[in-house]
Write a structure and sequence with these properties.
single chain, 12 strands, three-stranded antiparallel beta sheet, alpha/beta
Length: 278
Amino acid sequence: MKVAIVGASGFVGTRMVERWVLGKKFAVVPVVRSYSSLAVLARFELPWHVCDIFNPAALANAFNGFDAVVHSAIGDPRQIPLMAEAIYRGAEKAGVRRLVVLSSASVHGQAPPESTNENSPLHERHTMAYNNAKVRAEKVLQQLSAKGAVEVVQLRPSVVYGPRSRWIADTGKQLLNGTACLVNGGGAICNHVYVDNLIRAVELVLEVPKAAGETFLVGDAAAVTWREFYERLADALTGGHQLPLSHAVDGVDVIHPLDAVPVALVDRINPDEAGAAL
């Protein structure tokens, strides 16, 4: 299968290229917005396309001859729906069979009810503009695919973590500089998904015919709390010290700066996967 990855220079896109090229899973072609975005990917001898990802004609030219497209590009709230429409129209013009879109569990809000599933009604009244933009993008794709020729599968991951993720690097920095905190002791479920598990979900919906037209929430099976997630990072940074919490203020526990030990953070978190990723 020949797959174009839009947003191939991002966190998930880069890892997708790595896994599929090194594992010889699919014939991969990155589609990016600028030549500078190819810097990390240049270690692989791959064909590539640099184009305006808001231009359906330019995208159609980039997608010509592909079986499928994966949309993993990011943008601001104004860009997100426009990008989704342009990528669909470009894929349709190029005769692409299937479009896999990385949406977000944020379409359900920041604290959805436990009963939330893929069929839960969506709305555009969220406090965060990003969440509303993701909802609009999903609706645009549903409308286009209802009348168009391209099969669309939408995935809704939540907290995607792994090598190069902001959930690792940024959280680690916050733990070190004393700006990290936990709400109500960090007892809520994190709803995370390791990046390679998300990519496995992408592989499945690319290959399974019955996935056409479906939407899937994607997460790891383990129910890890935010406190546990932070504790594992703190353990990797300090060599086993516990989280130094201050007293709670209005339900928020402030974490004192960690006394860090220079250890390989990613290797400590997931040595097997990290070795393959770096």
